[in-house]
Write a structure and sequence with these properties.
The structure is a homodimer of 174-residue chains.
Chain A lengths: L1 H4 L3 E5 L4 E3 L7 E15 L5 E8 L3 E2 L2 H6 L6 E14 H10 L2 H26 L2 H11 L1 H6 L2 H8 L3 H14 L1
Helix pairs in contact in A: 7-8
Chain A binds a DNA duplex (30 and 30 nucleotides) through helix 8.
Chain lengths: 174, 174
Amino acid sequence: MEQLKTFFIPKKYRRKQYVLQQGDPCKYIVFVEKGMLRSYQVDDKGNEHIVQFAPEGWWISDSYSFLTGTPASYDIDVLEEAEVLLITQPAMEEMLQAIPAMERYMRILMQNSLISMQRRIACTLTTQAEERYLGFIAEHPHIGQRVPQHMLASFLGMTPETLSRVRKQLLKKS
Amino acid sequence: MEQLKTFFIPKKYRRKQYVLQQGDPCKYIVFVEKGMLRSYQVDDKGNEHIVQFAPEGWWISDSYSFLTGTPASYDIDVLEEAEVLLITQPAMEEMLQAIPAMERYMRILMQNSLISMQRRIACTLTTQAEERYLGFIAEHPHIGQRVPQHMLASFLGMTPETLSRVRKQLLKKS
DNA sequence: CGCCGAGTTGAACTGAATCAAGAAACGTGG
DNA sequence: CCACGTTTCTTGATTCAGTTCAACTCGGCG
């Protein structure tokens, strides 16, 4: 554990602070110890589309940019005052050398993220607004509580208005 | 290389053959040496939604089912006569023990899949039918050629009719 | 030759987006 | 601790991209 910590840079961020801006190269992978971050993309019309929420215990970064050094296509910023651990590309390589078990850990991490991404895709392909919302709050109730509704809408791929109406419908039903 | 092969079971499949059926546990991860497979989900209305195409050099499976032993939520079948290598969960573990470098390989594999999944999500969140189609054929021209159009539509999350019309529009423009 | 799956086209329909306006909740500085 | 501005959420009216349904064409294959 002690050895592990030497590869990481601890850091604190305020609400609304950028951790990564679109166009800059993504120098770090971020582990969230406390608080919540999000990654998102801004389209030509200025609409935000949330790719990921990262509460405590999650990792977040623009992996493609991190690995290739190309400019990031996402923004990452802070939703709730956060304490994080940063690791750079070289530090990561060192760490994997020094602690081979980490290779396995990272693989499993990637695997799990991959699975949840695949589910999300299957879900957006097969289901309508309402069902998608229900699915999300069923799987991530904790996130649903902590995040403003319009961000949830953005994550789910619908407008805030639509989500508002969906929830209204659901209230009637119950 | 020789050692590697001992962990895998080679197998040939015909067109339209199932490699995995929804509801069965996914016992193998499949590496495609030749041909093409696909994974997809069937919704309540009987519509297929393609999750992944796997041409030569790609891996395919229902990772969640494979890892947890739960019934698969996808079907996997063969689009073009295929030669594949199968690996079971225990063989995989053995292999990772015997050849630690594979741990790294698998991590990178997962990482790359994850990146492409993330892109796909960003893409479905931000873009319309036409742009999504263009993006796909730009990134995977080889797949676009080999796959029937209605499957492409299914992958892109639109009806065959819509894709047909999109392509018609594009012809006019050029 | 006849059938069948794949693709195209048209017309009607619909779920969700957009535009616009107002209400409620929030937090920040005086 | 209140007041003001900002952010969040809601609601209604209108519009639109894409779906659905149905009919028709084309090319291959038994």
